[in-house]
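User: Hi! I have a protein structure encoded as tokens and I'd like to know what sequence might fold into it. I'm fairly new to this, so please keep things simple.
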């Protein structure tokens, strides 16, 4: 289990912000509390449950054991929200999406194939 802090550096309200993410909600909340973040600041309306942290909190998170990541290379074990609201590792969500896309592509290919091989109607 791990807690990560990215380098997103998003400007907002005169400060630069990043995200504190985790592979386990309990560990994420524990580290957030240890560096002084309030539980009420936790955000889970989007894909990744996280805390927004400014540059000072980012440094505190790193000193407390968070692993630095880039916003472009999110680890596969980071929790991600499924459409049903449950959380699983990012790798599972990505695999489910890929499987779903492949199934849709297979259905589309099957329909296209059957329409090409259908015999024309005899119109007389």
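Assistant: Happy to help. Inverse folding works backwards from shape to sequence: for each of the 124 positions I chose a residue that suits the local structure. Here it is:
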């Amino acid at each position: 289990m791990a807690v990560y802090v990215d380098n997103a550096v998003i400007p907002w309200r005169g400060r630069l912000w990043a995200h504190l993410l985790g592979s386990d909600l309990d560990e994420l909340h524990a580290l957030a509390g240890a560096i002084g973040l309030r539980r009420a600041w936790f955000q889970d309306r989007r894909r990744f449950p996280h805390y927004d942290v400014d540059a000072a909190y980012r440094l505190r998170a790193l000193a407390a054991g968070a692993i630095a990541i880039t916003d472009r290379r999110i680890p596969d074990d980071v929790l991600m929200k499924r459409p049903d609201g449950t959380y699983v590792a990012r790798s599972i969500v990505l695999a489910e999406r890929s499987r779903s896309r492949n199934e849709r592509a297979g259905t589309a290919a099957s329909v296209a194939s059957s329409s090409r091989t259908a015999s024309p109607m005899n119109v007389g």
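A useful reference point when you look it over: Residues 3-94 form one domain. Feel free to ask if any position seems puzzling.
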